[in-house]
Amino acid sequence: MSHEHRDNGPRRVGQVKEVTSLANPIIKDIKALSDKKTREQSGTFMAEGLKLVIDAIELGWTIRTLVYAKAAKGKPLVEQMAAKTVASGGLVLEVSEKVLSSITRRDNPQMVVGVFENRWKPLRDIRPAKGETWIALDRVRDPGNLGTIIRTADAAGASGVILVGETTDPFSLETVRATMGSVFAMPVSRATPEEFIAWKKQAGVSLVATHLAGSVDYRTIDYKTKPVVILMGNEQSGLPEQLAREADALARIPQQGLADSLNLAVASAVMMFEARRHLLSLTEAK
User: Fold this and answer.
1) 106 and 162 in one domain?
2) Contact, 81 vs 53, CB < 8 A?
3) 169 DSSP 8-state letter
4) Is the same domain home to 61 and 200?
5) Is 272 a residue whose pLDDT tops 80?
C-alpha cells in the first residue's frame, strides 16, 4: 500500500504558507483579481515584480498578500518584504513556479507578486496649487496607454491623474505593469463628466484640452498663471462637446508627415512636459 504524501493545500512554515496546488482557495481568490468586478468588490489588486512590491510597501500601501517563488526564498530583499508583510498583518505564500505562472498568466513570471489595497484620491480633496499640473483623461480605454501616462506624469512632475467617465482600470495587472511602479507614487482620482465639470468650476484651474479643432499652438499657452489641468480625449472619438466647451484653451500639437494623429500616451507626454518646461527655470531644470 502506497503512503505517498499528497500536497493539496497550504502548509505553514513558520510565518509562511507553502502552496503547490492550483486548486488552493487562496490562489483562486488571487487569480480572480484579473477581473475588474472582483477588484472593485474586494478593493484589492495585484502588482507583479519585486521592484513594484518594494515601491508600494515603501510608499505605505497596504499589502494583503505577498507571493514568491520557491527560487526566491532566502533572497534578502524578498525576506525583508515578507517580514514587513507579516508585521502589517498580511499573508506570505511560498509557491511553485506553476502556481505563479497561473496567477500572472505568464510563462516566465516575475518571482514576486503582491496583493495590495487599492487607493483612490477623492476628487473633492484635490485642490491644485499654483505651479501644479494635473492630467485628466476622458474615457481612456487602453491599459498600456493609461499605465504609460501614469508613468509619464510621475516623470514629468505632474501632481496626479483624474479619470473621467468609463475608463480602463488603473489597478488592472496590465496597467500596473505599464506604470513601472508609478501607480504607487501618483494620486489617481475618478469622476463622472458632470462631477469633473462641477469640480473644475470651483477649483481655480486653467483647463487646457487637446482637440482636433484646437486653435491654439500648445507651446503658446499660459501654463504659469493658474494651476493647469491638461484634458486628453478618448483614443478613438476625442473629446465630447460637453467637456470641450469647458476648456479655457483648446490646444493643438502641430504635426507634419503622413500621420494625422499621435498616440494618446505620446500626446499626453508632449503636453505634460511642455507645461513643466514653462514652470521650470533653467537653473531648476535637471
Assistant:
1) no
2) yes
3) -
4) no
5) yes
| Chain segment 47-72, per-residue pLDDT in tens | 999 999 999 999 999 999 999 999 99
Show Cβ contacts of residue 222 under 8 Å, excluding neighbours closer than 6 positions: 206
Residue after which a domain boundary falls, among 69, 99, 117: 117
Which of the pair, 85 or 2, is modelled with greater confidence?
85
pLDDT tens digits, residue range 134-187? 999 999 999 999 999 999 999 999 999 999 999 999 999 999 999 999 999 999
* Cβ contacts of 134 within 8 Å, gap of 6 or more: 126, 128, 158, 159, 160, 161, 162, 205, 227, 228, 229, 230
Instruction: Tell the residue number behind the cell numbers 469633473, with chain if given.
Output: 196
Range of the domain at 76: 11-117
User: How much is the mean pLDDT over the chain?
Assistant: 90
> What's the whole-model pTM score?
0.89
To which residue does cell 498568466 refer? 105
